[in-house]
Design a protein that fits this description.
By secondary structure, the protein is of the alpha+beta class. Helices cover about 25% and strands about 30% of the residues. The protein has 4 domains: about 180 residues, Aminopeptidase N, middle-beta domain (Immunoglobulin-like), CATH 2.60.40; about 200 residues, tricorn interacting facor f3 domain (Immunoglobulin-like, Sandwich), CATH 2.60.40.1730; about 80 residues, Zincin-like, CATH 3.30.2010.30; about 130 residues, Neutral Protease, domain 2, CATH 1.10.390.10. Strands 4-7-2-1-10-13-12 form a 7-stranded mixed sheet, with no helix packed on it. The chain has a 5-stranded mixed sheet with strand order 15-16-17-19-18. Strands 8-9-14-11 form a 4-stranded antiparallel sheet, with no helix packed on it.
């Protein structure tokens, strides 16, 4: 029977083919990691995420210090906190007054640092770290030389200071270091440059040239003085305090960081400032160059709006102000240290209504979200990094969904995990070793955001926002774990979420299920929609899926249906409907991390019969693909936000003639009884 005859017959309802099993039917396409089209928006977004992810934050975890080979007093691992819940360290650096002089021609950074130390337990020696320093000189506040020993290895300098006398407890002691560091500005990890010495921009962001008592986070307050050429301007997180002119005509720019942070990054260029006002009249400063000055207002307006939205959703913007600093494109993406955000050049040229504006909004909303997630609330261990990156990405997705009126970002994130992560690289979002997988970005940024998206199905969007707001209050300027967030979410929603946390943060993988539907008559003569989910994984997932029921006259309703297998591979659920449905659709907004296949092959509308309506459904999705072929013949991964694998009957990540041919043999079939 030809395809045309089948279509006509199905539309007329004249074909009656019994349903039968399809033994060995392939449900999903084999995994294949295709390269990315470098010109695609997805590739640019992924590059930005990978670049940011390359800066691996050292977290509060003495037993998991990075790098682990450093010989540092274990008690100093707790110096990162200075919060009452964690107790006080043996000693800590409470303030650093830092002067930096960057020679771009030689890639040398000269530093003078006056460090204020406070001891809480008897201390007769200090162990410190900095990046590879030479010509190191250490003096007491009065200029007296202090005996030190240092050891350079793997780009670090470990410094041991023999104190002239034991430190007086609870009393500040100041010493000064003078050093020169040869910068290594090659990419770290998967692409992020820690510094740059180009002609237009010079910057030092992740190069830890300052002093730290631990390889874990060791935050301090700071005053930063950046020496520049006569025509250059310095930008940095914190409060700009003006500039002075040196005798040789160069300038020194001053920044005060009144909050504790372990980042003292800065940038130098011929910057101009565009300014704005955030909530509570806090200053917003956008540092850009003359080339982009005319479009800087767009970034001011965007940042102002995003901060305002987040202040409502997550609580008051916590810092004295916000500085956005432009760097060159090979920076890769964005990074948000406390009260400052470094972002790459092209986002400052974007304008609303242009193709690049959406990507700009995604990136800016993600980085600004870090002012709450990662800065205000800090992950306690490497396994809690979802509290930073997953929440920042989820926040950005919420923003673009509401204010850009599209869910393409969160859908793309979900598809990225589903189609880009091989089983050999998959790990739980909350795994302590998640940094070690090459698929870190797809797991933590993308799947992690999609996991929080699924939480909306379980407790509702309002409760998710209430929980996040309460979480930011309870762990304001503190370290937190994923378990802490679970406790807050349970308290807000009055639901036990232990299964959700265990399943989605402690377990890897995603939902894969055959789904069949039937329309049955209830005891009262009304209609019931009956759905069967057969999961193919060894340990079936519990989840809540939005089910859209369409009726005549273009009426629809959405029901949240819980699939709770309780250890069984197959789960049947049913619910009453007020009228005969035209069709039933699963997870239209793609809010579940899943791959679905039709249990009755080709019954896309889950009516229990494969007919002309299903052919029409397939025709409407014809051409959708997760893989595309370029003019050069190369196949690329393509993130299609309209993708639905349900229609990929001949699984190859394309909906094409092969799927039409596959459907032909099933037209007229009816679902088996269940």
């Amino acid at each position: 029977m030809t395809r045309a005859v089948l279509l006509l017959a199905a539309l007329c309802g004249t074909v009656a083919m019994p349903a039968q099993a399809a033994p060995g039917r392939k449900l999903f396409a084999d995994f294949e990691r295709l390269p990315l089209d470098p010109e695609s928006p997805y590739a640019r977004t992924l590059a930005a995420h990978r670049a940011e992810a390359a800066h691996r934050p050292a977290q509060l975890a003495p037993s998991l210090r990075q790098p682990t080979f450093l010989d540092v007093d274990p008690s100093l691992g707790w110096s990162a906190a200075n919060f009452s819940a964690l107790g006080k360290p043996k000693w800590e650096i409470v303030h650093q007054d830092i002067t930096v002089d960057l020679n771009a021609a030689t890639s040398e950074l000269k530093t003078t640092i006056a460090a204020t130390v406070r001891a809480y337990q008897p201390t007769v020696a200090l162990s410190l770290l900095t990046m590879g320093a030479s010509s190191l000189k250490v003096e007491a506040k009065d200029g007296t030389a202090i005996k030190v020993s240092s050891n350079n290895f793997s780009g670090y300098t470990a410094i041991s200071i023999d104190l002239p006398a034991p430190l007086t407890l609870e009393t500040d002691w100041v010493f000064t270091t003078n050093a020169t560091a040869k910068l290594n500005c090659s990419p770290q990890g998967i692409g992020l440059l820690p510094c740059g010495v180009g002609g237009t921009y010079q910057w030092v962001t992740f190069h830890r040239y300052y002093l730290t008592p631990s390889a874990s986070r060791s935050p301090f307050k700071s005053t930063l003085h950046v020496v520049t050429g006569a025509t250059k301007v310095a930008a940095a997180p914190g409060i700009p305090m003006g500039s002075d002119t040196l005798a040789d005509g160069r300038k020194v720019w001053h920044f005060e960081q009144p909050e504790r942070t372990d980042n003292a990054g800065f940038a130098i260029a011929e910057y101009v400032q565009a300014t704005g006002k955030l909530v509570q009249d806090k200053p917003l400063r956008v540092f850009t160059t003359n080339k982009y000055a005319t479009s800087a207002k767009n970034m001011v307006d965007l940042a102002t709006k995003v901060v305002g939205v987040y202040s409502t959703d997550f609580g008051e913007f916590p810092w004295p102000g916000l500085n956005l600093m432009q760097l060159e494109n090979n920076f890769g993406g964005g990074y948000a240290p406390l009260s400052g955000i470094f972002m790459y050049r092209d986002v400052y040229a974007a304008s609303p209504g242009t193709g690049y504006w959406y990507a700009t909004t995604e990136l800016a909303a993600h980085e600004i979200a870090h002012q709450w997630w990662g800065n205000l609330v800090e992950p306690a261990t490497n396994g809690d990094v979802a509290l930073s990156e997953s929440l920042a990405e989820f926040s950005s997705c919420l923003y673009t969904e509401k204010y850009m009126e599209t869910r393409s970002q969160i859908i793309r994130d979900s598809l990225s995990y589903l189609y880009r992560v091989p089983a050999s690289e998959d790990m739980p979002v909350g795994a302590q070793g998640v940094y070690g997988t090459p698929s870190y970005v797809e797991i933590v940024y993308h799947k992690g955001a999609a996991v929080f998206e699924m939480l909306r199905n379980e407790i509702g969007t309002d409760n998710v926002l209430k929980a996040l707001k309460q979480f930011a209050v309870e762990y304001n300027r503190d370290y937190a774990t994923l378990d802490n967030l679970q406790a807050v979410a349970q308290n807000v929603s009055k639901k036990d979420l232990s299964w959700f946390w265990n399943q989605w943060f402690d377990k890897k993988g995603a939902i894969e299920a055959e789904v069949a539907g039937r329309l049955v008559t209830g005891a009262d003569g009304g209609y019931l929609v009956r759905l069967r989910f057969h999961q193919t994984m060894a340990k079936p997932f519990r989840f809540t899926v939005p089910v859209t029921v369409d009726y005549a006259a273009q009426k629809s309703e959405v029901k949240l249906v819980e699939v709770n297998p309780k250890g069984e591979a197959t789960t049947v659920v049913e619910f009453a409907v007020p009228a005969r449905p035209v069709r039933v659709r699963l997870d239209v907004q793609r809010s579940v991390i899943r791959k679905f296949a039709t249990g009755t092959p080709g019954d896309f509308n889950l009516s229990g019969q494969v007919d002309g309506a299903d052919l029409v459904e397939l025709a409407l999705r014809y051409g959708r693909a997760m893989r595309i072929k370029a003019k050069n013949g190369q196949e690329y991964f393509f993130s299609d936000s309209g993708w639905n694998e349900l229609y990929d009957l001949q699984p190859d990540r394309r909906i094409d003639l092969a799927d039409v041919d596959a459907l032909d043999q099933w037209v007229g079939a009816v679902a088996e009884e269940f």
